[in-house]
Amino acid sequence: MFDWLVVGAGFAGAVLAERLASQRGEKVLVIDRRDHIGGNAFDEYDAAGVLMHRYGPHIFHTNSEQVFRHLSQFTAWRAYQHRVLAKVQDGKLVPMPINRTTVNRLYDLSFTTEEEVENFFQARAEPASPVRTSEDVVVGRVGRELYETFFRGYTRKQWGLDPSELDKSVTSRVPTRADDDDRYFTDSFQFMPRDGYTEMFRKMLDHPNITVMTGTDYAEVKDRHPHRRLIWTGPVDEFFGFRFGKLPYRSLRFDHQTLEQEWFQPVGTLNYPAEDVPYTRITEYKYLTGQVHPKTTITREYPAAEGDPYYPIPRPENAALYKQYEALADATPDTWFVGRLATYRYYNMDQVVAQALSTFRRIEDAVPSVKAAE
């Protein structure tokens, strides 16, 4: 008899499994239908010996000291600030998110102050009221031309929808800057796990109270391994047998390539916003990991309608459908739904960790521990 069955060995499942085992002394079975731990953050050494991410780049950043301190129990860190360039018309490479350098390079200008750049944006902005869609966000901030150059094609490829059809939250994730800060993220803590994500997950799950079974589906074990309570981190609609229909997700296809050269591109990620390029971005992992190697491995990302669920699609009708599943989830006893797929939210890694830690605190308040019962 296990005290807990945790379905999914990604951030949500691993963080909760470790807390339940180490803080409450409870027996936890962690399963994952994939053949590895770490979820989408799984990394591995490829055939050439280059450390790469099987499911595309995962770059850790957070403003939460609590989240950073928690994960620091299981990894040392390598400082890394991610930089992204976009390949636009005439093959120009310009910083993304848009900043002063972007504007100067695109328009052959020589702005030196934030005020000049803000005036440039304001002269082109077409504010919408109210702001509802992703198009409204960008056009209202920087105008239609920059929107067309950087956002429309990229978003249409990524989501299979025009930005005018997507909730404002999608493009709100990407800031627009008037200074020359060319970092993709501005969070207080920007690091990569020194020995990789998989090693961090291995240490997190390395506890005598935790049993891990990969290559294992929930349907195979739910009756075979008795358990008192359940943590579910998979798609919430799947848990309920798609009772109200499938929640829409966007998927990705990854084309990994090892090259007989030390470097391929000038930064960690190059974005390709043009619609006539079928992939959205190319990432070169050695920038992220700091690995020294004579070869390099890159990944091209091709968005797809079918495949593993990666991104919940933020549209009002999808949010309404999720609400129906959320009501079922709330009414399911001894079961906690955690993570991007289980709560149908476009969370970053640190947000999933924070949600898992918050869920653990709720469990502490609601469920007497095995220790307390002894």
Automatic annotation (TrEMBL):
One of its GO terms (molecular function) is UDP-galactopyranose mutase activity. Its EC number is 5.4.99.9. Keywords: FAD, Flavoprotein, Isomerase. Its cofactor is FAD. Coiled coil: none annotated. Pfam families: GLF, NAD_binding_8. InterPro entries: UDP-GALP_mutase, UDP-GalPyranose_mutase_C. Residues 150-346 form the UDP-galactopyranose mutase C-terminal domain. NCBIfam families: UDP-GALP_mutase. Belongs to the UDP-galactopyranose/dTDP-fucopyranose mutase family. This is UDP-galactopyranose mutase. It comes from Roseomonas elaeocarpi. The lineage of its organism: Bacteria, Pseudomonadati, Pseudomonadota, Alphaproteobacteria, Acetobacterales. The gene is glf.
